Amino acid sequence: MTSIAVIVGSTREGSFNRALGELAAGRLESRGANVTRVDLAAFDLPLYSAALEANAFPPDALKLKALFAAQDGLLFVSPEYNGSLSPLLKNAIDWASRPTGDESLVALTAYRGKPAAIMSASISPFGGLRGLMHLRQILSTIQMLVIPEQVVVPNAHAAFAEDGSLKEALPASLVEMTAGRLIAVAKALTA
Ligand SMILES: Cc1cc2nc3c(=O)[nH]c(=O)nc-3n(C[C@H](O)[C@H](O)[C@H](O)COP(=O)(O)O)c2cc1C
């Protein structure tokens, strides 16, 4: 079974990105994926610093890295903060990119060669598009294969129906397309 982790870059109560992540997780599951929902609030991740790392690698950073490493693919759902991804998500990505044990500096065992998909929900009419451009570049830098499909949900405060679905057909169809491609690529790469 294809394993996908859904990582949401907001821990805010009522987060629109969590709502989008939950919707996407459901669509991945309906296609047969084994989905792990990653709530970053459940991980005690200090702000990355090389000094901290040299002193003691935080146990929860190791835990997060192992969780990522065990997946066939990763789906990142991030708010846009000042035109970029959230610092919460960037910090998590950075910790899990670090070598541990005997790994080389560029081992990137949590990420290398795996498919990634990206999504964003924003209260703005642009739907977090600028943040996704940064996120795509970062994930490519850590040698993930970022699929071309992506999802932006503009006017997120008015975008979701009571049942968690998206009211507009276009972003809803993008979620379907993105979920489908992520699983297809993950399957092809693990075949
Ligand atoms: C520091 C900060 C910067 C923000 N910058 C942007 C931005 O550049 N573009 C945007 O669309 N929304 C921006 N927002 C608004 C967020 O998109 C909005 O708060 C969104 O609801 C956050 O996602 P969440 O609902 O998943 O927590 C910003 C919010 C904060 C706190």
From TrEMBL:
Taxonomic placement: Bacteria, Pseudomonadati, Pseudomonadota, Alphaproteobacteria, Sphingomonadales
Domain NADPH-dependent FMN reductase-like: 3-157
Highest taxon of the lineage: Bacteria
Annotated Pfam families: FMN_red
InterPro entries in the cross-refs: Flavoprotein-like_sf, FMN_Rdtase-like_dom, NAD(P)H-dep_reductase
Coiled coil: none
MF (Gene Ontology): FMN binding; oxidoreductase activity
GO CC term (a single one): cytosol
This protein's name: NADPH-dependent FMN reductase-like domain-containing protein
